[in-house]
């Protein structure tokens, strides 16, 4: 049985111009210990799918699915109280833009300890020790000092490490990383990716990596789902996807990699529009 199984997920938002369908019947599964990459350009519904799974979309969203189960638990029928026992403990998420996700009014240590208060029975002293342990595990220097720092007193890379520490605080079975290297410089991006993969290997947790970067996919994933405009275009193991992509949109993404450039400019998705439209017509 898959750790997470979602079938025919649809999400619509109420807007001033009427309903907008952000996801149109997508399926996801991820097994224990697996790294699944969900890839596609901005607006393809990657983050919406995971926020729907977490129950974090606003009230303007209408979510339907034939199946939405985590370890056999039906996520569609959970009460808010039941959901709080799962989200943040068994399923955790690293959000985009750590500076925006951390509360500017509280220290890093306070925010890390908050998750432990909710989901564990540790004493105050034990929680403090666990916070220091978490900060060390994600490579934050001088954790005794940094736990008393506010987000604005830390670099973007350090804030991202705090977010990762918060996400793994309760040893989740599934970690969702939503564009975890956005707005970080190249050196820090590599450090964050290496950290995530080490944590995944050491703990055996499942990891869903949301990204638009095919280079990240090649480095991290076991299996890949390619999305475009709220639909799944292709799903394959990572080696098959890179060696023999089947869908024109997947080929467009790969062709846009700088190392695959053959002319004076990189191709765009519009360059593949005709073959893409033909493929959609056959779907």
Structure description:
It contains 12 helices and 11 strands. It is α/β, with parallel strands linked by helices and 283 residues long. The chain has 3 domains: 1-80 and 173-245, Rossmann fold (3-Layer(aba) Sandwich), CATH 3.40.50.300; 100-171, no CATH class; 247-283, no CATH class. The strands form 2 sheets. A 6-stranded mixed beta sheet has the order 7-8-9-3-10-11, sandwiched between helices. Strands 1, 2, 4, 5 and 6 form a 5-stranded antiparallel beta sheet that branches. It is globular and about 60 Å long. The protein starts with a strand and ends with a helix. It is found in: Cell inner membrane. Its main location: membrane. This is ATP-binding cassette domain-containing protein. GO terms for molecular function: ATP binding; ATP hydrolysis activity.
């Amino acid at each position: 049985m898959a750790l997470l199984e979602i079938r025919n997920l649809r999400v619509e938002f109420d807007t001033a111009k009427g309903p907008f369908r952000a996801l149109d019947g997508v399926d996801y599964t991820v097994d224990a210990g697996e790294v699944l990459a969900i890839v596609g350009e901005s607006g393809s519904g990657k983050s919406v799918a995971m926020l729907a799974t977490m129950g974090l979309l606003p009230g303007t969203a209408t979510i339907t699915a034939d199946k939405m189960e985590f370890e056999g638990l039906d996520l569609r029928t959970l009460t808010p109280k039941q959901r709080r026992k799962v989200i943040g403990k068994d399923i955790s998420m690293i959000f985009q833009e750590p500076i925006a996700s951390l509360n500017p009014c509280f220290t890093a240590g306070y925010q890390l300890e908050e998750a432990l208060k909710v989901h564990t029975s540790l004493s105050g002293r034990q929680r403090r020790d666990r916070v220091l342990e978490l900060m060390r595990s994600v490579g934050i220097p001088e954790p005794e000092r940094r736990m008393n720092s506010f987000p604005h007193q830390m670099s973007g890379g350090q804030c991202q490490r705090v977010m990762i520490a918060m996400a793994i605080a309760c040893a989740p079975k599934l970690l969702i990383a939503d564009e975890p290297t956005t707005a970080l410089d190249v050196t820090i991006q590599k450090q964050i990716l290496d950290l995530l993969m080490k944590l995944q290997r050491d703990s055996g947790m499942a990891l869903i990596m949301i990204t638009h970067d095919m280079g990240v996919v090649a480095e991290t994933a076991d299996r890949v789902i390619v999305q475009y405009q709220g639909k799944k275009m292709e799903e394959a193991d990572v080696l098959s996807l890179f060696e023999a992509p089947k869908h024109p949109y997947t080929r467009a993404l790969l062709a846009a990699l700088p190392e695959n450039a053959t002319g004076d400019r990189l191709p765009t998705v519009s360059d593949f529009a005709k073959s893409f439209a033909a493929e959609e017509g056959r779907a």
